[in-house]
Amino acid sequence: MYYLNKLRLAISGIMLIFAVVHTVWPDLAIDAITLALLGIAVTPWLAPLFKTIELPGGVKIEFQDTEKVAEATAALAAASTARFDGAVTPEIQAREATSAAGTVMKAVTATNLQQASQSVLLWVDDKPSNNVLERRALEALGITFVLATSTQEALEKLKNSTFGAVISDMGREGDVDAGYTLLDSMRQRGINTSYIIYAASRSPEHVVEARKHGALGYTNRPDELFQLVMQTL
Questions:
Q1: How far apart (Å, rounded) are the C-alpha atoms in residues 33 and 10?
Q2: CB–CB of 73/41 below 8 Å?
Q3: Any signal peptide, and if so, which residues (predicted)?
Q4: Residues forming a β-bridge with 218
Q5: Closest by alpha carbon to 100, among 120, 83, 117?
Q6: Which SS3 state, helix, strand or coil, does residue 93 take?
C-alpha cells in the first residue's frame, strides 16, 4: 500500500507539472485527453470538493468510482515498472505512471465499471505471486479473482462455476503449452468463456497462434492485459 500511495503522489505530481508548464508556456500544445486522464488521477486528493466527475464525451463518474480509477492506475503503473530489469529510474516511473493513466482512462467506461463489480474471473498460473499487481489493478475496479495453479484445478473450477473470463499463463506442470491445453480442453467441453493468455512472450507468432486456438489475446504487457480484460466486461 505504501508503494501504491507513492505512485498516486507521483501521478498527482505529474499533473501539477503539466499545469505549470501549460501556464508558463501557454502556446505549448498539450492535448485535452492527456490533461483529462492526468486530471482524473489527481482528483482523489480533492475528495471534499467533488461528488461527480464529467469526462470527455459527457460521461459522468461518481467520485467513489474516480477513486477506483486512481487506485487501478497506481497498481497498473506498479505492475509495469516491476517488469523492468535493473534499476527503475524516476523517468521510467513517471513514464509508466502517465502511460497507466492513459490506459485506464481509455479502457474504463461507466458501463464496464459498473459491470466490473459483478465480474468474477479465473486466473490460472502456477506462480500466482508473479501477478499480484496486475490483479490489484483490476480488483481496484471491483473485479473478483479465483485462482488456480494447474490445468486440472482450473477445469474443476470451470465445471462448478461460471466466470466472466479466464486468464492463463503458458507453461506449467511440465507442459510448455499448458495455456493452449487448457483452452482446447475448455472448448472441447463447450466452455466458450473469453480466454486471455498472459505469458513471458509477446511475439507476433504467439499472438497469431493463440487466436487460432480461440484466445481473445496473448500478451506479456500489464497495460494490454488490462485492456483485454475490460473488453470482456
A1: 19
A2: yes
A3: none
A4: 197
A5: 83
A6: helix
Look at the block and give the residue holding cell 479473482. 145
The DSSP result for 4-20, as a single string, is: HHHHHHHHHHHHHHHHH
Look at residues 144, 143, 146, 171 and name the one whose alpha carbon lies nearest to residue 156. Answer: 146
- H helical segments located in the chain: 2-24, 32-42, 63-82, 90-107, 110-116, 132-139, 151-160, 178-188, 204-213, 222-232
DSSP per position, 33-80? HHHHHHHHHHGGGGGGG-SEEEPTTS-EEEHHHHHHHHHHHHHHHHHH
So where are the chain's domains?
2-108, 118-232
Residues 73-109 as b/e (b if ≥16 CB within 10 A, e otherwise) read bbbbbbbbbeeeeeeeeeeebbebbbbbbbbbbebbe
Give pTM, 2 decimals.
0.75
Chain centroid to CA 220 = 12
Q: Are 143 and 230 in contact (CB under 8 A)?
A: no
Fold of 118-232: Rossmann fold (3.40.50)
Query: What would the grid cell of residue 65 be?
Result: 468510482
Which residues 6+ apart lie within 8 Å of 185 measured at CB? 151, 155
pLDDT tens for residues 164-193?
999 999 999 889 999 999 999 999 999 999
| Close Cβ partners of 123 (under 8 Å, ≥ 6 residues apart) | 131, 135, 145, 146, 147, 148, 166, 167, 168
Written as one letter, the residue type at 26 is P
Q: Measured between alpha carbons, how far is residue 201 from residues 170, 219, 221 in Å?
A: 9, 7, 9
C-alpha–C-alpha distance, residues 133 and 107, integer Å: 18
